[in-house]
Design goal:
With 193 residues, the protein is mostly helical. It folds into 2 domains: 3-47 and 133-184, no CATH class; 51-120, Winged helix-like DNA-binding domain superfamily/Winged helix DNA-binding domain (Arc Repressor Mutant, subunit A), CATH 1.10.10.10. It is 47% helix and 9% strand. The chain has 7 helices and 4 strands, in the order αββαααββααα. A two-stranded antiparallel sheet has the order 1-2. The chain has a two-stranded antiparallel sheet with strand order 3-4. Helix 2 packs across helix 4 (86-98) and helix 3 (75-82) packs across helix 4 (86-98). The longest helix is centred in the last third of the chain and has 20 residues, at 153-172. 21% of the residues are buried. Mean pLDDT is 76; it is low at 1-27 and 32-44.
């Protein structure tokens, strides 16, 4: 699956979400149709990945780029290759190990290796392993029946949930292997539409 296909699919998904028709209730209690205006060129601008999530992705990308090497890679080597602070990297690798994304070996010649082939590790899994579920915030869930206690808050909650879902789906479109191919120059660079 190429990066261009992922980008086109994500943009298509965003446009579909933004053009979706929803039912609402006016002040008199009558149902009205609301139409969300599509944005001409939807992007994920302004959506942020935490420093911890970025460092985790950089560390695993480093392992994926050296997947053909024999033996584990030490934390020190990963830190040097990625310019990440070693103490913080150690904490991140422990979280990734707990999530089953890396395995470790202790002692002389010890270090970390990917727990699965790079083709089977999604970018979304890495971010979720260190940051928790991919959302735009911890705002709660909208009311299921459309009743809203707080002056339209549920509409915003539904929009935030949709935006978080789009980000998660976008990150699911990238594997460590596909990113490593781009980093090596074997695949085209991801582009924004």
């Amino acid at each position: 699956m190429g990066v261009d296909w992922v980008t086109r699919t994500t943009v298509h998904h965003l446009r579909a979400l933004l053009a979706k028709r929803t039912a609402g209730v006016d002040a008199g209690g009558d149902e009205v149709e609301m139409r969300v205006r599509p944005v001409p060129r939807p992007t994920l601008d302004g959506v942020r990945v935490s420093t911890r999530g970025d460092y985790a992705c950089r560390a695993l990308l480093s392992l994926a780029l050296r997947d053909g090497e024999t033996g584990p890679t030490s934390v020190r080597d990963i830190a040097e290759r990625t310019a990440l602070p070693q103490p913080y990297l150690e904490q991140i690798l422990l979280a990734l190990k707990g999530a089953g994304l890396v395995r470790s070996k202790r002692g002389v010649g010890g270090g970390y290796v990917l727990a699965r082939p790079a083709e089977q590790i999604l970018l979304s899994e890495i971010v979720s392993a260190v940051d928790g579920p991919i959302t735009l915030g911890d705002f709660g869930e909208p009311h299921a029946d459309g009743a809203c206690d707080h002056e339209g808050q549920c509409v915003l909650l539904a929009i935030w949930k949709q935006a978080g879902d789009v980000m998660r789906v976008h990150l699911e479109g990238f594997t460590l292997a596909s990113i490593a191919n781009v980093a090596r120059g074997d695949a085209p660079w991801p582009t924004s539409n």
